[in-house]
C-alpha cells in the first residue's frame, strides 16, 4: 500500500468511492477543482492500480479542516484510515498547521474510535449537519501536529 498525493487520474475512482460511501457524495468536478486549490492537500492510498482510500484537507494560516476521508469497504479495518490521517497530519504540519478539525456523524462509531485513538478530542457538536439521513456531527480537533 502506497500513500501519495492525489492526481487527476485518481478522480474517477475517488468519485465512485464517494458514491459508495456517502449519501451526499462530492462530484468528480469538485475533486478536480480541489487539485488546483493551493490551500488543499489531498492524499490517496493505492494498492496497485486501485485507490483504496483518500483524505483531503484545507489549510488556512495555522489551522486545517479535514474535508473528506473514505476507505473502500473491502480495505476497512486494515489500518489504511490511520495511515492516511497520520500522513495528512504530517503534510499539514509541514505547511504550518498546528491544529486540525473534522466533523463526523454521531453514529459513526468506528471513525470516532479511530479519531480518538489518534489524539482527536471533541470540541463541539453541529446539530442536523448531515442530511441523508439527518444527523448531528461531532466536531473533533487535534492540536500540536
Name of the CATH first level: Alpha Beta
Which radius of gyration do the C-alpha atoms yield?
Answer: 14 Å
Percent range of helical residues:
25-40%
Q: What strand line-up does the widest sheet have?
A: 1-2-3-4-5-7-6
Structural category is: alpha+beta
Low-confidence stretches: none
Shape field: globular
The amount of beta strand, in percent, is 35-45%
Following the backbone from N to C, one meets helices and strands in this order, namely EHHEEEHEHEE
Query: Helical region count?
Result: 4
Average predicted confidence as pLDDT:
95
| CATH architecture annotation name | 3-Layer(aba) Sandwich
Give the tally of structural domains: 1
Per the CATH scheme, the topology name is Aminopeptidase
Q: Looking at this structure, what is the CATH superfamily?
A: Gcn5-related N-acetyltransferase (GNAT)
Distance between the termini: 24 Å
| Strands, total number | 7
Tell me about the largest β-sheet: 7 strands, mixed
Amino acid at each position: 500500500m502506497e500513500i501519495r498525493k492525489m492526481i487527476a487520474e485518481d478522480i474517477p475512482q475517488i468519485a465512485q468511492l464517494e458514491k459508495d460511501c456517502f449519501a451526499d457524495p462530492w462530484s468528480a468536478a469538485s475533486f478536480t477543482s480541489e487539485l488546483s486549490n493551493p490551500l488543499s492537500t489531498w492524499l490517496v492510498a493505492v494498492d496497485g492500480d486501485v485507490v483504496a482510500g483518500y483524505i483531503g484537507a484545507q489549510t488556512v494560516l495555522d489551522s486545517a479542516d479535514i474535508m473528506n476521508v473514505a476507505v473502500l469497504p473491502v480495505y476497512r479495518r486494515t489500518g489504511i484510515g490511520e495511515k492516511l490521517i497520520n500522513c495528512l497530519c504530517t503534510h499539514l504540519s509541514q505547511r504550518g498547521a498546528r491544529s486540525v478539525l473534522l466533523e463526523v456523524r454521531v453514529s459513526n462509531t468506528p471513525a470516532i474510535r479511530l479519531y480518538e485513538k489518534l489524539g482527536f478530542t471533541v470540541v463541539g457538536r453541529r446539530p442536523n449537519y448531515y442530511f441523508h439521513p439527518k444527523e448531528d456531527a461531532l466536531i473533533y480537533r487535534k492540536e500540536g501536529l
